[in-house]
Design goal:
Number of helices: 0
Order of helices and strands: EEEEEEEEEEEEEEEEEEEE
Largest sheet: 5 strands, antiparallel
Radius of gyration: 20 Å
Number of strands: 20
Oligomer: single chain
Shape: globular
Strand content: 35-45%
Distance between the termini: 27 Å
């Protein structure tokens, strides 16, 4: 999800949904763009008997046949979602007086000026939100890597991928363009930016593979030629945030570390 002014933008399976949160206790859905993220459907009809899936009734995420006997509790209980892999992150720093929220390091939604950018597998989707009640999607921009995270800074998009960091400019907001990159061995890779430096953590993970666990500090004073300055050994970093002169890293079992 991502927030600008009094509007919150979120994905609901294959739809993009806009909520008016001017009254935070009673958010109201004000717009819905249907079928924006078709790849979010984890089950394809070809894998199931013809006629079993009726997409008009909803989205099938997983199933199995079995006979069960249950005692029902009338108090609703939350069951962990099956096959949910995507992680969304709220803003690291909320702005109560309006404006745009600052993205967390593991989000695939981010906002620059009047555009919402959504990472949908190998596609970066620019969406014009100058009118929140009527968002307009531009053609997707295809990336050639497995992009996991987005972070906005000074009209640039910094993308964490499983094999390095990509930088795109938004000079043409409807069609971001590649600028430069920094590569590393295969690993999960979120990023935050401040001033002339990017802070990138890489970690080992069953989805991303690799065995690196470290913090990389990258000099971006020349945006066209980012340079790795130094690496710090970590335990298993799972996201980071920056505020003022403090860098916060969630380092697995070691807990929160502050630099």
């Amino acid at each position: 999800m991502s927030i600008k002014d009094n509007y919150l933008y979120a994905n609901s399976f294959i739809d993009l949904v806009v909520f008016d949160i001017s009254n935070i206790t009673t958010p109201v859905e004000v717009a819905r763009m249907k079928d924006q993220f078709p790849q979010a459907l984890p089950v394809m009809e070809k894998n199931y008997p013809v006629g079993v899936i009726d997409k008009n009734l909803g989205v099938v995420t997983a199933w199995e046949y079995r006979a069960v006997k249950e005692e029902v509790n009338d108090v609703p209980l939350w069951n962990n979602c099956i096959n949910c892999m995507e992680i969304s992150a709220m803003s690291f720093d909320a702005q109560t007086s309006g404006g745009t929220g600052i993205s967390g390091s593991i989000t695939r939604f981010t906002i620059i000026n009047d555009y919402l950018y959504v990472m949908d597998y190998g596609q970066l989707r620019p969406i014009n939100i100058s009118n929140p009640l009527s968002p307009v999607a531009s053609n997707p921009v295809y990336t050639w890597r497995d992009v996991e995270t987005l972070f906005p800074y000074n009209n640039y998009l910094f993308m964490g991928t499983t094999t390095g960091m990509l930088i795109y400019n938004t000079t043409n907001p409807a069609m971001p363009e590649y600028v430069s990159e920094v590569n590393h061995m295969t690993a999960c890779d979120p990023v935050v930016v401040q001033g002339n430096y990017c802070y990138v953590t890489v970690r080992s993970n069953s989805f991303c593979a690799g065995d690196l666990n470290q913090l990389d500090v990258i000099d971006i004073s020349d945006i066209n030629n980012p340079v790795l300055q130094k690496s710090f050994e970590m335990t298993n970093p799972h996201g980071l945030g920056i505020s003022g002169n403090a860098l916060f890293i969630c380092d697995g079992e070691d807990g929160l570390k502050i630099f």
